[in-house]
Design goal:
The chain is mainly α. It has 12 helices and no strands. The chain is globular, with a radius of gyration of 19 Å.
Length: 282
């Protein structure tokens, strides 16, 4: 992989991880267009660690408060003794569905959904679900749920939507924000909880694949660590994805305070049409 390809893929990852348009689908397609031999390899997962850093940096004060509150809970042997520690446990709860399904069925998910027709179909289905979430949000009569009012039911419900995003084309952010809207959260709360909920999932997936690549290198000298050029490309793509991801978070949070996700619904439908046309004619 050349450096310009690494930079391009880093930009793609940084833009699409947080915009509700599916980073995995975009990365897989971009890598296939670039002629990479195995677009499904661990590079696609490991490069997400860059966007994980973007979340840590953007929400550094929130995360510091959460960690301090959890440590206080441990010291005092109390459970969810403050809003920050309560949020931490809600994030843990919301991570369970995706963690279990990813651990048990990741290989089957890759075999079934990591292909162009499946990604196109999933993109359309979740575009319609996003549209339904916006419709529900506008017509819901009850008061909106802010970040401090999120409970275990909303957290677990949002976690189920994150689990569905294991399918390329669904979009982790798009799915979890939609789940939040269906649960009654306001857009700002749904987006912030979505980004914080991404931390354990992206970290676990990225570190697992990083370990697998290191193990492959130690065993037979293959994988992402097989050459200095591959390691440099991975480092560059990860760094670029972090910078672009930080800007994407800031932009999307501001956007969702003023507007709905309708523009992303239109984009996803157009993306599905392009993917299907390319699959038919290639």
């Amino acid at each position: 992989m050349s450096l310009w390809e690494a930079i391009l893929l880093g930009v793609v990852q940084g833009l699409t991880e947080f915009l509700p348009i599916s980073s995995t689908a975009h990365l897989l397609v971009a890598r296939e267009w670039l002629g990479h031999a195995d677009p499904k390899d661990s590079f696609t997962t490991v490069v997400q660690l860059g966007t994980l850093v973007a979340v840590f940096v953007y929400f550094r004060r929130d995360i510091a408060a959460i960690l301090a509150a959890v440590w206080q809970d441990v010291r005092t042997r109390r459970f969810a003794s403050s809003p920050a520690s309560r949020l931490a446990w809600l994030i843990v709860l919301g991570t369970i569905p995706a963690g279990l399904v990813g651990f048990l069925f990741q290989k089957k998910i890759k075999a079934a959904f990591y292909n162009v027709p499946a990604m196109a179909v999933v993109a359309v289905v979740f575009a319609l679900l996003m549209l339904a979430a916006e419709w529900w949000h506008k017509r819901r009569k009850r008061p909106e749920i802010g970040e401090n009012e999120i409970g275990w039911k909303e957290a677990l419900w949002t976690g189920v939507w994150q689990m569905l995003a294991l399918m390329p084309g669904a979009s982790r952010s798009g799915s979890t924000i939609s789940g939040g809207l269906f649960a009654g959260m306001n857009r700002a709360a749904a987006a912030r909880f979505s980004f914080l909920l991404s931390l354990p999932t992206i970290l676990a997936a990225g570190l697992k694949d990083l370990y697998d690549e290191f193990k492959a290198y130690r065993t037979d000298g293959t994988g992402l660590f097989a050459s200095g050029d591959q390691m440099l490309a991975l480092a560059v793509a990860t760094a670029v994805s972090g910078v672009v991801g930080y800007l994407s978070i800031a932009w999307l949070l501001g956007f969702l305070k003023r507007r709905s996700m309708a523009v992303f619904v239109a984009y996803r439908l157009a993306l599905a049409a392009v993917l299907l046309a390319w699959w038919v004619w290639r």
